[in-house]
Each structure stands twice: as C-alpha cells, then as structure tokens.
Amino acid sequence: MKKIIHFIEQAAYMTKNPLGIIGLFISFIYAVSALVLTLSEQWLTLNQTWALVWFIVLFPILILIAFLYLVINHHQKLYSPSDYRDESNFFRPLNPEEQNEKFEKEAQHLFPVNESVINDSIMNKKGDGPPSTQHEAENLNQALMNHLFNASNFYFLIEESVLRALESDMDITIRRQMALETAKERVNFSGVAFQPDELIGVEIKYAPTGRIEEDQIESLVKMIETVIEFNRDRRPIHFILSFVSDQPFKNEKETKLEIYERLHGIALVHFKFYLLDELRKKS
C-alpha cells in the first residue's frame, strides 16, 4: 500500500513539467506493453507476439530520437517556471540569430524592398542571364543586402537609445532582447526589467512619419494578450510601450485609446513617445 501511495505522489510531482509528463507517458506505455505480452501470451498469435516484441524493442529507440530532437531544437519548452531557481529565468535572452531575425523583420517592415526584384537578381546571379545582366543583378543584390543590414543596425540603435533613456528616467535595470516561450510561439521583448515585486515588459516601435500604423498596434496588443495568458511568474507584469518618430506624432491619443479598448483592462500599460532628435541628445 505504501508503495502505491509513493508511486502516486511521484506521479503527481512529475506532472508539474513537460519532462515529467513525457516520462510518465513512456513508463505507462512500456508497462502496459510488457504486461500484455506477459499475461496474454496464450491468446496471442505468433504474428501478434512478434509485433508486440518489436514494439517493445523499437519503442525506446524512437523515444530516444524524439527526445534528442526536443533537446536540440526545443529545450526551453521542456521545463516549467518552477524548475528554475529564479522564475524570472523563464524569460530568456534572444540568441544572436533570433536578434538578427527580429531586427531584419522590423527593418523590412519599415524599409520595404521589392521581393520580385530580389528574386530576379538572385536568379540572374546564378547564371540565367547575360554577363552584363548578371553583374547588374549582383550589384543590386549586394545593395539590397547592405540596405537591410544598415536598416537593422539603425533599428537596434533606436531600441538601445530608448532603453537607456528608460533606465535613466525610472532608475531601473532592463535586460535587453528578451523572449517568453509559449507552446505555440516565441514572444519577443525589446527588454524586461525584473523588479522584486513586479515585472516590466518594454516594447519599442519606430514610426518615422509620426503615424503609428495599425499593424504595429495589432502586434503590440497580441504580444500583451499572449504574455498575460502564458506568463507564470508570480509577480504581476505591466508594460511600457515606447514609440519613436522623426516627426511629431499624429495619432498619439488615438493609439492609446485603441490599445486600451482592445485590451479590455487585462493589463497595466504605460506609453512613452520620443522624438529621434531628443533621443540623440540624451545619448
């Protein structure tokens, strides 16, 4: 009886994170298979017996392959926040590749280039056109790549300037380029401040003309809704949404109102609006 109670307690403990659930599932399947093979031998045909034997032999190998795949590609998703000594570690820094991907995506949105031109230049670069055309395509392709690289660096400098300004104004420390992992997606933050009694998520958007676009508002609302749903840290989290522009903002009040209305009060949100020239003077 004590062994059964101990097993139940261990099983309940293992359900606290994905690794434990996977372990329970494997143990259950393997135990049932072995039990069926042992107790039902007289009722099984030879083919059925061999099928069950091969399953018992191959099942651990398949599990090993699947486990290696998860560890290599999705290791962040195998733990719950309670597995971390500091639950704020559930928010992780973006690796260099993820940072580049983020800034390139923002740069492509702000400084779009014609994809058909890029594709044509790449095809010509492979030798599908005359030498002169190939040379022009190579030059165009290089120019586009340089443009994207410069735009990504520009966006990075904007974010860094805003984060420094927030740190100075609020007397806090902000960890740069953070992410929250969910089962479906990765939510990126420009930064997160881990305070003893709260978390502060910072996201920065650049609106060069002074008009904040609808798709920028949409991405911010989606980010906040996802974080509120999946954040498991015990501390409450609120958000600072910072906007940067080259010109005076044209829809500042409308942006605030739309975000407040769409969130329906599920999160505490503060807004910061910066002109690029002002940021440069602070830096």
Sum up the structure in keywords.
single chain, alpha/beta, six-stranded mixed β-sheet, 9 helices, 59% helix
Structure characterization notes:
- With 283 residues, the protein is an alpha/beta fold.
- The protein contains 9 helices and 6 strands, in the order αααβαααβββαβαβα.
- It has helices at 2-14, 18-39, 46-73, 96-110, 115-128, 131-170, 214-230, 252-263, 276-282; strands at 91-93, 175-181, 186-194, 199-206, 237-245, 269-275.
- It has a 6-stranded mixed beta sheet, with helices on both faces.
- Strand 3 (186-194) and strand 4 (199-206) form a beta hairpin.
- The longest helix has 40 residues, at 131-170.
Low-confidence parts, pLDDT < 50 over ≥5 residues? Answer: 84-89, 114-118
**Helix and strand run:** HHHEHHHEEEHEHEH
Number of distinct helices: 9
Average residue pLDDT? 77
* Rg from Cα: 27 Å
- Distance between the first and last residues' Cα: 69 Å
Structure described in brief:
This protein has 283 residues and is α/β, with parallel strands linked by helices. The protein has helices at residues 2-14, 18-39, 46-73, 96-110, 115-128, 131-170, 214-230, 252-263, 276-282; strands spanning 91-93, 175-181, 186-194, 199-206, 237-245, 269-275.
